[in-house]
């Protein structure tokens, strides 16, 4: 199916316009509310609450407002910028992903506006009470806006057809191995590093001890999902993180096909180790990727020289078929 340049621009513009417009409107609402009620806020804002809505932590007002703006506006804008480089408007999941990008700022804005209004007029943080329905309202509004955006934007552009792969010819007793590396691109890696730095600064400034646990967890996850090694040999396909875990193996007798496809982080909902119904992905960039089909599931890894890995797997599958035919 051939798509004209005009159609490509129209689809890309529609997805970008919808997500940027919702993010911009959310930003205007959040900043407007914060400016309007700034004079009625206490010196310290209640920022964390227990399940009954009673505050159990607070932060300096200026710092809290800055964090609300950074997370509520900066994070969604950063995600749109990062995923725009991957052309998320391509593929079957394009509309759903646009809905996700649009729903995120709406949910965050609703949450932070609720926090600001809850603190309005309080003499001290311990006087503040937060409605337990705020989280539910934030989620419902995010879902509603996300569904509307997903319905309004056009279908995603088709991704390029899978590349033709030539099987590697192997003798029945011959064995070979192939190694590929999946590494995070510079832009998403910098974004993840920035997130860790922001969390660290927020922890130091706020003095909230449990933020150190979140910062450490995010840092560990970043190390664990930014680099993988994929191996193809006579046993099948093995993959592992640079730190050893997570890891996995697909036995050769379970593999039904292998090939090279055009993959995108948006198709899997993000970067790194990603799971979606019927698929597991090691996705760190857009472009060609090794795809291994086993039963009704598939494994996708954005390795370099994916054609060689797929060709070797097809060669092993050919040996298995010949052995079965002889019996």
From TrEMBL:
Among its keywords, does the record have Membrane? yes
Q: Keyword annotations for this protein?
A: Membrane, Transmembrane, Transmembrane helix
Full protein name? DUF1648 domain-containing protein
Stretches that traverse the bilayer: 20-39, 59-84, 96-118, 130-153, 187-205, 211-232
Q: Which domain of life is it from?
A: Bacteria
